[in-house]
Write a structure and sequence with these properties.
It contains 19 helices and no strands. It is an all-alpha fold.
């Protein structure tokens, strides 16, 4: 006899998976819709699905305490800086990009189903993506779109070893994403992609924990050697591509900035200013949005932004989530939860190392919620081979 409760739970899991797929890909969907308030419409759709699937909203005490903790940090910011409209803008972003993901992290969902749904969203959008003229659009829009396409690209890479239809769809999407990122991909998006591919295949191919750590040390050493010779490597790559009348947007931009002695596009000056300002208010920070108020732009680094804005009160939780996620990936087998951690880590921390603000990165807050609510379950996650899904 089939338990009716199992059917209800399965139905709820599917609706939760749809909600999370919409959440993770909301920037991509909004950019494809090209309508005012696209993010707001998607957020309302997620809330409606949750009310329908769970007949109301339920959330764990841990999640409530996390949200209250963040709101207290915002309160400190309002007390420190009067009339800080950047702080008001950030708290509004947190209500959409932060609270909704933290809530969804409480739900039971199927990680692989989420990835499949995101892949299908990307596949359906291919006619809009591949027919658009990107040459005349602003560089800011190119950067935003190149980050927005990463959830689709990462899902396709993960599911490329799937069977039958999903394998075909994955490779079609991969080819389309490669072409688009060659044309418009920002340097930060390319770095995030490189980090994702490295961690994903590193976790997939190396099974023993000792070999993982040894390989990580070797990879770190090779990375620093590459950095030392980066100009020679990039120049050789650009010259090789020019022979075939090819170019890569991120590569050309990097070499151009390197020649103008502004490889980091003045981010290094922002980072130095942030480090200097941290000394003045190390514990509670300088207030959310205060860096923008002073410098006219954001810090362009998740760790410096967290300690500047919220001091150790914000910096310690952010760093803790990063290391817990990384250590979980290193310690555990190649499981559904491990795959999804790598996925969210790449879309959050790796993407926020050089650009954007974490108040509007829903993937970061989803990762924080999952680590907060499910960390104790990670070691028990079962082994899963992607090709056997």
């Amino acid at each position: 006899m089939i338990n009716p409760n199992s059917k209800t739970k399965s139905y709820s899991v599917h609706l939760n998976s749809i909600s999370i797929a919409l959440l993770v890909s909301m920037n991509f969907i909004a950019s494809m819709l090209r309508i005012s308030g696209g993010i707001f419409i998607i957020s309302l759709s997620i809330i409606a699905i949750q009310f329908y699937s769970r007949k109301g909203i339920s959330i764990s005490l841990k999640s409530i305490l996390m949200i209250l903790y963040i709101l207290i940090i915002f309160l400190f910011s309002f007390l420190i800086n009067d009339n800080n409209y950047y702080a008001i803008d950030s708290i509004l972003k947190f209500f959409i990009f932060g609270i909704i993901p933290i809530y969804l992290s409480n739900c039971d969902f199927d990680e692989i189903l989420v990835l499949k749904l995101i892949l299908v969203i990307g596949f359906i959008s291919l006619p809009f993506l591949t027919t658009r003229n990107y040459h005349d659009i602003a560089s800011e829009y190119k950067m935003g779109l190149s980050y927005a396409i990463l959830p689709i690209f990462f899902s396709a890479i993960i599911l490329a070893s799937e069977k039958y239809l999903y394998k075909i769809i994955s490779w079609v999407v991969i080819i389309a994403c490669v072409i688009i990122l060659i044309d418009i991909g920002s340097r930060g998006a390319v770095v995030s992609l490189f980090c994702f591919i490295s961690v994903f295949f590193f976790s997939k191919l190396i099974k023993r924990e000792f070999l993982k750590y040894a390989s990580l040390l070797l990879f770190t050493g090779l990375f620093f050697v590459l950095i030392e010779n980066i100009w020679s490597v990039l120049s050789w790559l650009q010259f090789s591509l020019m022979k075939y009348d090819m170019s890569i947007y991120a590569l050309d931009k990097t070499i151009l900035y390197y020649g103008q002695d502004k490889l980091l596009n003045f981010r290094d000056y922002l980072w130095v200013s942030a480090i200097d300002g941290i000394k003045d208010s190390f514990l509670i920070g300088n207030g959310i949005g205060s860096f923008q108020l002073i410098h006219g732009t954001y810090v362009h680094n998740i760790f410096l932004q967290s300690i500047w804005e919220g001091g150790l009160l914000l910096f310690i939780p952010v760093v803790a989530v990063f290391f817990i996620s990384l250590m979980t990936i290193l310690h555990n087998s190649f499981s559904e939860k491990n795959i999804f951690l790598i996925y969210l880590l790449s879309l959050s921390f790796f993407s926020l190392l050089f650009s954007s603000m974490f108040w509007m990165n829903q993937n970061l807050w989803l990762l924080i919620g999952i680590v907060l609510n499910n960390y104790s379950k990670f070691p028990n996650s079962h082994t899963l081979k992607i090709g056997e899904i």
